Amino acid sequence: MNIARASLVLLWWGTLVASLHDGGAAGIALLQNATGISAGAALALVLLGCAWDAAIGLLLLLRPGALTYRLAAAGVIGMTLLATVLVPTLWLDPLGALLKNLPVLALLALMGEKGAQA
After folding, report:
1. Could you list the residue ranges that cross the membrane (predicted)?
2. How far apart are CA 118 and CA 9, in angstroms?
3. For residues 79 and 105, what is the distance between their CA atoms, to the nearest angstrom?
4. How many Cα neighbours within 13 Å face the side chain of 22?
């Protein structure tokens, strides 16, 4: 496995761990405070995101290729758009909560172009 692919796998699984480390409480609180949605709806969004992160991390590990990179990019775009609508201030997060998605998309595009499978 090349370092670029390994870093993407770690990014997706790291996001999963970060989202669940406290049982999803931080994500639920962020969503509730920003949008006023119910705790149940916020939990559902957090868990849906976690399931997506786990699936993409596994696909990147076991089945790298153009389709996997496109699915990963589609997920990044979709989650970025959803987060922008629900919590637009995340663009101002000093740790780059949404801004980091731009270089991730560039890396996914490069890997998809080259068919990086190593």
Report:
1. 41-62, 69-92
2. 13
3. 12
4. 7
Burial class (CB in 10 A: 0-12, 13-18, 19+), 68: buried
Q: How many CA atoms lie within 13 A of 81 on its CB side?
A: 5
The domain tally of the chain equals: 1
Q: Which residues contact 115 (CB under 8 A, 6 or more apart)?
A: 65, 66
* Residue span of the structural domain in which 58 resides: 3-114
* pLDDT value at 118 more than 50: no
